[in-house]
Amino acid sequence: MSEATLNKDTGDERLQRVSPVKKTLSRPEFGAVSGAILVLAFFAVAASGTGMFSGSGIVNFLEVSAQLGIIAVAAALLMIGGEFDLSIGSMIGFAGILIAIPAVQFGWPLWAALLFAFSFAMAVGFVNGMLVVKTGLPSFIVTLGFLFILRGLAIGLPRLFANRTQIGGVHDTMAGDWLAPLFSGYVGTGLFQWLADIGLLATNFAGNPAVEGIPASVAWWVALTAMATWVLLGTRFGNWIFACGGDKNAARNVGVPVNTVKVSLFMFTAFSAAIYAALQVMDTGSADSMRGMLKELEAIIAVVIGGALLTGGYGSAIGASFGALIFGVVQMGIFYTGINTDWFQVFLGAMLLIAVLFNNYVRKKALEAK
Amino acid sequence: MSSQAPMIEMRNVDKRFGSVIAISDISMKVHRGEVMCLLGDNGAGKSTLIKTLSGVHKPSNGELLVDGKPADYQSPSDALDAGIATVFQDLAMIPLMSITRNFFMGREPTVGWGPFKRVDWKYADRVAMEEMGKIGIDVRDPSQPVGTLSGGERQCVAIARAVYFGAKVLILDEPTSALGVKQASVVLRYIAKARADGLAVIFITHNVHHAYPVADAFTLLKRGSSLGTFRKDEVSREEVLNMMAGGAELESLDAELSEFQRNEQHDDEITEGSLPASAAHGPQSSGARLATGY
């Protein structure tokens, strides 16, 4: 028993206005949002005049951010729920193969291949989750197993069915497919055309707007971030996610269906990896065994930069999204400024360390009596 | 107490884990408006007993009756739905989550419809504030993390939560063991209030000074079996103390300590350390230590 708890037993002298500034500082996403502003400001100066902040340049770095953001948001929910998924990266490659083989080799309609790949991915997520909750093994190990299994399948299956590790020709199957537009093309093309017409948006030589619209990946990114934030902050399920990650026994004791929550979160990360794969396959027109390498680690970095604790129970989807934005901005910024891209990884590692130290500090602050 | 059926009753309940018999042949009744104090040393089976009551474990043998009806719980949430609320030693509180989020964890009030169903956090905040206010804890900000509360306040959030959600049976696992004197009295007052409100309370403690004032009856567990149930008017505080801690052991401890002290004083004539002073405080401060749950 410490004296600290005794002497703050009663009395209103404890009452102290918490300034809005301090409240903002203690939000989990604070680090990521301010970091994103910082790198944007940095490259706005360092990369000025290089076209990074022209319409198409912005779309470029947003697309890079969006792809990572899609899986980072799902990884954030899972990490807040107290688990990791190291199989996300392999799942991207594997799901891509699952779309391309049926669509190209077997001649299925693309929508059927997509549905097949999504269901299969979520089934793998389900197995991942069940293994973790039923055996009580750390998700780190279970999903590390799937990292290799899925990567192996992503290499082995196309070799078996097509005798190569890259399957092209997906573009040909997209024409007229009802599901394909969900993962390709642009959103709001009309709006952008109008903006160009009234002169708010630059046009190219043919008089078309320089940016056709919001790429599908960016739309997915924004939509998933909004949805995940809504779930976390607004719904019962969101409260359960925090509870599972905070203390799963405590949560179970008050009647939270911990296993259901965790398994659905694993299914959601697999689902997000499948979205990533679908977007990539339709963008490039091909699936490749080696797609998504190391993406699981990048996603975790984005989540941690976004303010989530590795131990679970704390974090934010918006933070993870901004973590992904930092990624995209820096990756493209390094490209535009002509800095040797080797330095990107140095930056990544440094960012991760700074983020973890910062989060640690924030958590301590959060638990101190305010 | 009354002629009506006990609020909760165990009949010849056994619980085995593999070949280990955690509790055997336990029978116990608790009526409305009654506080049953469960006593026993570490390993006596108290935790297994309350986990069986709260639906975490299923009894291997025997029967559990709630309000006279047989109860068969598959999970803690079944037990909760039946009005059996347990405040576990670890409080089932999550330090990094806010008071409100903890208070309503697993039972969040929702508004809206279909996919737009959301938690009514405004209402939840207000209820959490009110309920905490009722037990005399002035919550500064319901969105502050539970980790910023003191031990006593946390305990009260846990109990207030259980009562708010319509508990008919309140099971408290060592609610005062980690608390200071003042905070413990807040919790004990709250237990008395819960009893007055007609709840059946099962209260587990090591501390006779906490148990005796609020309990109506005592059940003593030892090595997994019940040594019997005693009404408060049948036993004195000292007898209870003897039963729960093994009075003989405490007496021999006292003797040992004074022996130790004598030796130290003897040594002290040569070395002049600070140890004898603290050792000398040992026996005298045992009352205070008991009060803080040792």
TrEMBL record, chain A:
It is found in: Cell inner membrane. Part of the binding-protein-dependent transport system for D-xylose. Probably responsible for the translocation of the substrate across the membrane. One of its GO terms (cellular component) is plasma membrane. It holds the Pfam family BPD_transp_2. The chain crosses the membrane at residues 30-52, 58-79, 86-104, 110-133, 140-162, 182-206, 218-243, 263-279, 300-331, 343-362. This is Xylose transport system permease protein XylH. GO terms for molecular function: transmembrane transporter activity. It is a multi-pass membrane protein. InterPro entries: ABC_transp_permease. Keywords: Cell inner membrane, Cell membrane, Membrane, Sugar transport, Transmembrane, Transmembrane helix, Transport. It comes from Aidingimonas halophila. Belongs to the binding-protein-dependent transport system permease family. AraH/RbsC subfamily.
Automatic annotation (TrEMBL), chain B:
Residues 8-248 form the ABC transporter domain. The keyword ATP-binding applies. The keyword Nuclease does not apply. PROSITE patterns: ABC_TRANSPORTER_1, ABC_TRANSPORTER_2. It comes from Aidingimonas halophila. Residues 264-294 are annotated as: Disordered. One of its GO terms (molecular function) is ATP binding. Pfam families: ABC_tran. Keywords: ATP-binding, Nucleotide-binding. This is Monosaccharide ABC transporter ATP-binding protein, CUT2 family. PANTHER family: CARBOHYDRATE TRANSPORT ATP-BINDING PROTEIN MG119-RELATED, SUGAR ABC TRANSPORTER ATP-BINDING PROTEIN.
